[in-house]
Amino acid sequence: MARRSDRPIEHLLRRAGFGARPDELDFYGDLSIPDAVDALVDYDQINTNVDSLIGTPGYVGYTTNGAFSPRTVITDARQRWLFRMVHSDRPLQEKMTLFWHNHFATGYNKIAGALGSSEGARYLAAKASEDPGGVRGQIEMLRDNALGNFRDILTSIAKDTAMLFWLDGVTNTKAKPQENFGREIMELFTMGVGHYTEPDVYAAARVFSGWNVQRLGSGDAAHYEFVYNAAQHETTAKTFSFPIYADGNPTIPARAAAGGVQDGLDLINALAGNPNTARYLATKIYRFFVNDVGAPDPDFVNSIAAVYLQSGYDMKAVMREVLRSPQFWDPGTYFARYSWPVEFVVRALKDVGWTGFSVNSALTPLANMGQTLYEPPDVSGWRQGKAWFSTSAMLSRMNFASQLAANQKFNVAARAKAAAAGQSPDTLLAFLQRELVTAPLDSGVIAELSTYLRATGAWTGSDAQLQAKGSGLVHLIAGSAEYQFA
Amino acid sequence: MKVTRRQFVTFTGGGVAAFTMTYAAPEFLSQLALAQGAHARNLVILYLSGGNDSLSMVIPYNDPFYYSRRPTLAVPAGQVLQVGTDSSRVPLGLHPRLAGLKQIFDQGRLALIQRTGYPNQSRSHFTGVDIWSTADPNNAAGLGWVGRYLDSLPSPVDALVGWNTTASLPHVLQSAQTAVPAIASPSSYAFSSPNSGAEATAERATAVRIASHVPVDRPELAFVYGSTQGALATLDRVATVGTYNGSLTGTANYPANNGFAQALKAVAGAMVRGIGTRVFYVTTGGFDTHSGQNVVQTNGAYYNLMGTLNDGLLAFYNDLRNQGLLDDTLVLSFSEFGRRISENGSNGTDHGAASVMMAMGGRVNGGLYGTAPNLNTDPKNPTLENAAGDVTFETDFRSVYARVADNWLGTDSVGLLGGNFRKTSLTLV
C-alpha cells in the first residue's frame, strides 16, 4: 500500500493516535480534517474487534508461557495494550486511555504485593467480559470512559479496587483517617498543588473514611469490589479552603454514618467543577496533545477550560475542541512533542512493519527507555518532555530501532523493491524518508545518510544490499533525534 | 501473528550485534584534578525516595512518647543499636538492621544530621523533591544544585563528569550546560546494529557524524542531539566499568538481588577504572510507608528498606577502603520529608516534615549532629510543629549543602546556593 506524505493528517494521527498504519492513512486521508477529527472523537461509532485479532496472522505477535492471559499475567496485559495501540481502529480511545493512565498513575507492583501477582494484573487489566467475577480492571474502566464525563471518571477512580489499594484507601478508618488518597485527589487528579491547604488534606481523608472494598463471590468468581463501610466513616463536618457547594459554602455538613458516602460525592463534585481543575486538565492536555516544548498557551488553556466547565466536564466535547483548536493546527506544533517511549515504539512498528515481530520483545526496551505500562514510577505519573531523554534512554531508543530494523530487514527490502526504490542510494533514502516521517532533517544529516549508503561498496540494488542498507537506514532514521518528536 | 519465543530468537538472533570501537582516553582528567586540588573528590548523592521515616532509623529510644505514639511501629529499646547521646543528651539508637552503618559510625565515618528541613516544609512528594533538588523553596522549578555546580566547572567539561545510575535525569542533576549520562547498567550500555562487520562499523560512524550536526536553531531537538552525543561519547569508557566485580567476596560483596547495591558497585567501578566521573547519583525507593510499615518484624517493609540501605552502603564502604578510594569519596543522603510522628490506622505513617540526613566517607567527621526531637504531644513543644504532629527543622538542609560545597567540592556555597547558609557547628566534612 502506498503511503502519501500528507502532513496535516499525519500530524493528527501522531497526536490523536500512535502514528498511522498504511490503512489508517488511507482511511483518514480520504476525509476532510474536520471529518477526520469527528471520526476520531466519535469512535464509539466504529466497531471494535481488536482483541479478537490477537494471535491471528498478519498482525503483530505476542509471546507468552502457556495460555495468553492478560487478566492474570501482567506481561500479557502489557502485550495486549501494545497490540491495541498498533491495531485498534479507535486510536484516540487508546491514546486517551494512556493519558488517563498517566493521570491516575497506578502501579502494578504495589497491588501485586498486597494481593498477589495474578490479582494485581486482574484489578488493573481484566475485562469484565473475561473475568469470572465480572471484575473490570482500572485501565479497562478508563478505556470504557476514555472520553466520558470527568466527574464520573473521578467517582469510578475513587471506588476502583486498584486505587483503593494503591493509595491506601482500604486502611482509611474513622479512628485513623488515611491521607494518601485525600491528598493526591487534590494535588494530582484535580486542582493541582498550591490550590489546597494541609488542613484540606486532613479533611479530605476524613471525607473518604469508610470507602473500602468487600470480598464477594466464591471460587474463581471471588473478588473485591467497592463498599461504603458506614461503621468506619467519620461523621463530623469537614470544612475546606475552597467552595464545596454552588452557594460557596466550604463545609460538608455532619451527616449520619449511613448517608456518609455523600461526603465523598460532594467533594468529588466540588473538585470536578473547580476552575483550577479545569485549568489543570487543560494544561495537561496541552502538553500531551499539542505541545510540550514550550510553555502552555494561555488562550488554549482558557478556552479548553471553558469548554470543560460549560459542557459539564464532558471529555468528548473537550477533545473535539482540542483537535479543532488553532493551537493544535499551528505549524509550529508539528513535531513539538517529545514522544513517550510507547508512542515511539508503536509508531516505529506502524512505520517499519510488524509481521514476524512480537510485542513481548518491546517490553524490556520500553523499560530501558523509562516506560513500563501499568507501572508508572509513582502516583504523579511519568516525568515527561526532556526527562525522557537521558543518554541511556536515548541509547535504548536507538537500540530498539536497531532491533526492529534487524527483525524487519527482509520486509523492508521487499517493500523497497516493490516500490522500485532500489535503483539508487537516493531512491532508497527517499523511500524510507517517506515511510518514517521525522521532524525536518537538516541537509547535512541527509548528506550523512546518503554517504552511509555509499560507504561500503558500489551500489548494485541486489536483495542483499537492500537488506543491509535498508535495515541500516531504518536504524539510523528511527534512532535519529528527529524521529523522537511527534 | 503468534510468535513463540524460540521462533522470535531465530528471526533476530544472527542480526543484532553489539560492538564497540576504541576511544581515546580523556585528557580532561588532569584539568579537573587541577581544578579540584590534588585529590580527586567524588560526591555520591543518595536519594531515599518516598519520604524516609527517620524516627525509625535514628531512634530516640528513651522517649516515652515514641512508644505511646507508635504502639505498633516502635522499635523496643532493647533492640536498637545504641550510638550514644546527642548534644541535648538524648540517647539514640540505629534501626536493628543497620549493623553495617553502626560499624561505619563507630569508625567515625558516618555523620547523622538530625532535624534537617526548611520553613513551612512541603508535604508533597513532588514539590518536596523539587525543593531539596534545587535548594530553593521559593523557586523549585529551577536547575538542580548539583547541576549548577557542574555548570560552574571550567569548560570543556567531559561527557562523563557525572553519572546517574537511574534511567531518567533526577532534578538535582538538571543543569544548563552539562548533560549527565544516565547509565543504569554499564554492561548493557552498548551500540547495537542490525548488521555486522563493515556495515555495522559504517552505521556507527554515521551515527557519530550525524550527532555532530547539532541544530542550533531548534533547542528541543538540540537537547536530544546532546543525549545522543553523550551516549556515543561515553560508551567505550563505560564498557570498562561493566566488567568491574568489586574487591569483596562472599556475603561481604554487593548483594546480587539488591539493585541499590548494584548501582553502588557501578559507582565504585567507575572510580576504580578512573574514567573521570566526579558526581554520582544513586537512589533507593519504597519509603512512602503509609501502610504496613512493619519496622520491627524481620523482613517487614521498613526492616527491608533498612536492609537494602545497610547492605549497599556497607559493601560500598568496604570496597572503597580496599581500593584506597575511601578518602576521595563522600556520600550525602536526602529524602523529601520525614513522616508523621504518630502512626496511622494502617500501621504506617503519613507525610511529615524534618528528617535525618547522612554523610559517609573517609574524610567525614562522624557522629551525631543537631538534636533529636522531643516527641511530647504538648502543642507548644518547640521541637515539633503542626500541633505537635510533625518534627520541626533545626538545621536548614541548605546548611549541609553549604558545608559540602565549601569543604568538599571546593566551590563557593554562597554563589552556588544563592545565599549564606553556612553553619559553623556543622563540621561534618
Order of strands, main sheet of chain A, comes to 1-2
Question: Beta fraction of the residues of chain A?
Answer: under 5%
Largest sheet of chain A: 2 strands, antiparallel
Give the number of domains of chain B: 1
Number of DSSP-assigned strands of chain A? 4
Cα radius of gyration of chain A in angstroms: 24 Å
Description:
Chain A is mainly alpha-helical. In chain A, 52% of the residues lie in helices and 3% in strands. In chain A, the strands form two sheets. A two-stranded antiparallel ribbon of chain A has the order 1-2. In chain A, strands 3-4 form a two-stranded antiparallel ribbon. The longest helix of chain A is centred in the C-terminal third of the chain and has 17 residues, at 391-407. Chain B has one domain. Chain B is 33% helix and 15% strand. Chain B is built from twelve helices and 15 strands. In chain B, the strands form four sheets. In chain B, strands 2, 6, 7, 9, 10, 11, 12 and 15 form an eight-stranded mixed β-sheet that branches. In chain B, strands 3-5-4 form a three-stranded antiparallel β-sheet, covered by helices on one side. In chain B, a hairpin with a 4-residue loop joins strand 13 and strand 14. The longest helix of chain B is centred in the middle third of the chain and has 24 residues, at 219-242. Chain B starts with a helix and ends in a 12-residue tail after the last helix. The chains are: A mainly alpha (486), B alpha/beta (429). At the A-B interface, helix 11, helix 19, helix 20, helix 23 and helix 24 of A face helix 1, helix 5, strand 8, helix 7 and helix 8 of B.
